[in-house]
């Protein structure tokens, strides 16, 4: 998994940031776009430092490309999104086709998580 600058088309980047800011407002911490092999952090809130081992996080989230296949054809239906809850924040991951996005937030309700997921999914499908 490698970081790749300019992986995301500027128009798609703008749409993703706008969709997330609209859905979660000031609680948005970061947005990372990824494929099975590459990633680019497209947004980091100004009060945060870029000191996280982003490659390790992306590698874990990119495992979702394989994981969603495990549920393919199950009675659960089609994969929608993943919400991870931590002591100091939340991660919402959406994968569509061969690309995905994960968003970190300070706080999020299930309803807001669903809203950001729907916004991200429709933006990824356009982009």
Description of the structure:
The protein is of the alpha+beta class. It has four helices and six strands, in the order βαββααβββα. The protein has helices at residues 10-24, 54-62, 64-70, 110-126, and strands at 2-3, 28-34, 38-44, 82-86, 89-96, 99-105. Strand 2 (28-34) and strand 3 form a beta hairpin. Helix 1 packs antiparallel against helix 4 (110-126). The relative contact order is 0.22.
Brief description of this entry?
The chain is of the alpha+beta class and 127 residues long. The chain is built from four helices and six strands.
Q: Top keywords for this entry?
A:
single chain; 127 residues; alpha+beta; six-stranded mixed beta sheet; 6 strands; globular
The tally of helices reads: 4
Uncertain segments of ≥5 residues (pLDDT<50)? none
Using only C-alpha atoms, the radius of gyration works out to 14 Å
Order of helices and strands: EHEEHHEEEH
Overall structural class, as computed from helix and strand content, comes to: alpha+beta
* Secondary structure: helix percent: 25-40%
Secondary structure topology:
Layout: E1 2-3, H1 10-24, E2 28-34, E3 38-44, H2 54-62, H3 64-70, E4 82-86, E5 89-96, E6 99-105, H4 110-126
Parallel strand pairs: 1-3
Antiparallel strand pairs: 2-3, 2-6, 4-5, 5-6
Helix pairs in contact: 1-4
């Amino acid at each position: 998994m490698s970081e790749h600058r300019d992986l995301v088309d500027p128009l798609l980047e703008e749409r993703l940031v706008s969709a997330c800011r609209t859905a979660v407002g000031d609680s948005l911490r970061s947005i990372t776009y990824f494929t099975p092999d590459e990633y680019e952090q497209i947004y980091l809130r100004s009060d945060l430092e870029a000191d996280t081992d982003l490659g390790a996080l992306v590698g874990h989230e990119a495992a979702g490309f394989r994981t969603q296949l495990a549920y393919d054809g199950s009675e659960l239906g089609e994969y929608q999104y993943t919400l991870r809850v931590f002591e100091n924040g939340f991660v919402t991951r959406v994968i569509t086709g061969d690309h995905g996005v994960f968003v970190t937030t300070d706080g999020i309700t299930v309803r807001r998580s669903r809203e950001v997921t729907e916004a991200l999914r429709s933006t990824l499908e356009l982009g």
